[in-house]
Design brief:
By secondary structure, the protein is mostly helical. It contains 11 helices and no strands. The chain has one domain (3-245): Farnesyl Diphosphate Synthase (Orthogonal Bundle). Helix 4 runs antiparallel to helix 7 (133-140) and helix 8 runs antiparallel to helix 10. The longest helix is centred in the N-terminal third of the chain and has 27 residues, at 35-61.
């Protein structure tokens, strides 16, 4: 990995789980697996997460950095190619993921033009679609059973929607000056809620209730599966929401 990318990853102050995303699901894997495989998928996930974050900054703030975006994606693809040959079926999934991610700008515009909850869910999933590559990689490597993969994917998508809405509420003030669609800002505008009253409004409580509902749905889908870093993360975020906002 180039010194530039090592520096980019080292400067990431995001939540720790973004840096070891594949490891969240390690407890669900079947058969023996080398630690280096999960660690490598963690690095790949971190590279792709940073790629998405750099794209967000470019779109939100007209910041420079397209060269870094390309470098991050190239490094991730290079590492993936050591597990999946060029004709492997994995690359069809990779192309699908890239295509879904490319829709996020159109979905963002669609939400601005005529927002609906269905459109917002699609936008949230599109923004974070690369996070699914870890699960897909485990499936394609034969380390994850198909039925378990389907269950985890459904759960993960509920988690993604919950986390996006939670993030929109947390960034309510910060996102006022950004063009990226924010569901909390949209609903507050529709209801005529003054900016300084959002966190004391019934709307805020309603949105947090929705976050909790999706977190609970994500947890219920995997309640018959082994305890994992992922299930513990869901509970940790659920507890955090409860303690901070007293839902």
């Amino acid at each position: 990995m180039s010194p530039e990318l090592v520096y980019v990853l080292s400067q990431d102050s995001s939540s720790p789980f973004y840096k070891s995303y594949a490891s969240l699901f390690k407890a669900y894997l079947s058969g023996s697996i080398g630690t280096h495989v999960v660690q490598d998928l963690d690095i790949i996930g971190h590279l792709l997460f940073q790629m998405m974050m750099h794209i967000d900054r470019i779109e939100d703030d007209q910041a420079k950095g397209i060269d870094t975006v390309i470098a991050l994606q190239t490094e991730a693809a290079k590492r993936l190619s050591s597990y999946f040959p060029i004709k492997h079926s994995f690359w069809m999934q990779y192309d699908r993921i890239a295509n879904e991610f490319s829709k996020h700008k159109r979905l963002d515009r669609l939400c601005h033009q005529g927002s609906s909850w269905v459109n917002y869910e699609s936008l949230a999933l599109s923004r974070s679609i690369y996070a699914e590559l870890g699960l897909i990689s485990f499936l394609e490597l034969g380390l994850l059973e198909k039925q378990r993969f389907d269950t985890l994917l459904k759960s993960h998508r509920q988690f993604v929607i919950a986390f996006q809405l939670y993030d929109d509420c947390a960034d309510f003030y910060e996102d006022q000056s950004k063009e990226q669609f924010n569901w909390a800002i949209h609903k507050a505008s529709v209801k005529g809620i003054p900016l300084d009253q959002f966190y004391q409004s019934t709307l805020f409580n309603t949105l947090i209730d929705t976050v909790v509902d999706h977190l609970d749905s994500a947890a219920e889908l995997i309640e018959e599966l082994p305890i994992s870093e992922y299930s513990l993360l869901l509970q940790k975020i659920r507890d955090s929401v409860d303690s901070l906002y007293q839902v």
